[in-house]
Amino acid sequence: MNRNQIRAFAAPEPLWARRRVTAKFVPETRFELRPGPPAPFRATQENEFERLKNRLLTLQLDGLTRPELNTPLRRAANEAAALAWVTLYPLLVFPALFEEKAAAAVRQTERQARIYETSRELLGV
């Protein structure tokens, strides 16, 4: 095989390798940065959000007749807060989320109590 036959099977030379490009540098561009507001809006919103969460949780816990619901309701409030905080309107979304999570926590606690009682009866304890 001669050299021309070998070139026929080789990949073509890339376009960038054929042309020379000269780099041109321009003077630096500077931008003036202005400081933001002293208290970011998100921090203010976070304080309001914590107050709302505590107020709704307190309302739920005040009407509580069974102490075993205390921990699940607190967990439900924290889960609802975490989900609401990643939305655009956490203060608007949180009450509905908390209501759903609290209802699910009550149902789960009641279900666990039924299972516990049933298993005690089955085991004869």
Supply the key terms.
125 residues; 66% helix; elongated; mainly alpha
Structure notes:
- With 125 residues, this protein is mainly α.
- The chain has a domain at 40-125.
- The chain is 66% helix and 0% strand.
- It is built from five helices and no strands.
- The protein has helices at 3-9, 15-18, 41-62, 70-85, 90-123.
- The longest helix has 34 residues, at 90-123.
Number of strands: 0
Number of helices: 5
Largest sheet: none
Give the helices and strands as they follow along the chain.
HHHHH
Mean pLDDT: 84
- Structural classification: mainly alpha
CA-to-CA gap between the ends?
Answer: 92 Å
Write the layout of secondary structure elements.
Layout: H1 3-9, H2 15-18, H3 41-62, H4 70-85, H5 90-123
Helix pairs in contact: 3-4, 3-5, 4-5
